[in-house]
Amino acid sequence: MKTYRIAVIPGDGIGPEVINEGVKVLNKIAELDSSFEFDFTYFPWGCEFYTKHGKMMDDDGIDQLKDFAAIYLGAVGFPGVPDHISLWDLLLVIRKSFDQYVNLRPVQLLHGAHSALANVKNDEIDMLFIRENTEGEYAGAGDWLFKGQDNEVVLQNAVFSRKGTERIIRYAFEVAKREGKTLTSISKANALNYSMVFWDEVFEEVSLDYPEVKTASYLVDAAAMLMITDPKRFEIIVTSNLFGDILTDVGAAIAGGIGLAAGANINPERRYPSMFEPVHGSAPDIAGKGLSNPLATIWSASQMLDFFGYKEYGKAIASGIEELLSTKEFLTPDMGGTATTSEVGEKMVEILTSQIKRKVLG
Where's the Isopropylmalate dehydrogenase-like domain (predicted)? Predict the structure, then answer.
């Protein structure tokens, strides 16, 4: 039996609640398969840890995590701890230290999910954002000069290396080629006359190696508009750190809400662990009330299974979420239901058990 060691960082607010349901689903799938198992190790890092110790994680936290197969993150953020500290001192440290330069965020309108767009069909919203995840606008380069003085100046520098830009674009072309889909690059070269002109040039250079992939390129403002007015034109999308962050929230709005927004932070070479997380935030106002929606966390578990090579189980989870959404009996209040967080998780386990047993026995 193969054992996958998973580092679990439940984090803050609703993080522990939704992670519990994701772990429940992963354990049930492993139990039903019996050829592999998960060994979960929990780490108490996050904003509560910060209030006690003055830091978001142990000083040797990266060293503690480096030998795990993957990291499963709940949510980070809590009132009283500035957002830039909770982000930069935990999540971004992990992404950068483990070279998780690929961020995968599916924007897919599942059957049973409600879109903010009127009269849109499920197959018209089915895109995968491939976001550069370690540099760009989130490189953390800059300076704060003459602080508090009349001539105060703040510099925030975006960093686009040839290595970083080319590898994310090439990764996206490989995905588009494998899946037989179109690839759209999103930039802002008319205004950002260095970084985004460079991005566009690299995209054109790499495209020469993939003549079979149909491509398009849009400015980010036009892309935001088109995601709402004509979402079906987008299939695989590659973009920078900042634009990917913003546009995937637009995607969440048109594909069922933030409660269905999952994300994976991937080190494709597998030299370091990859990290899987919902992207909905910690929602401290509803923490501990059983109101949180665990479906994004469960969907990110399907991304983990995909990464480990169990794509059939990844598809089973997506199918299970669709079944749960379609019946509408076990939904949390954010989706118009009355079910608790744990009830949604239990129902997902029940659906998956039935699905997998039917497949095996059939």
Answer: 5-348
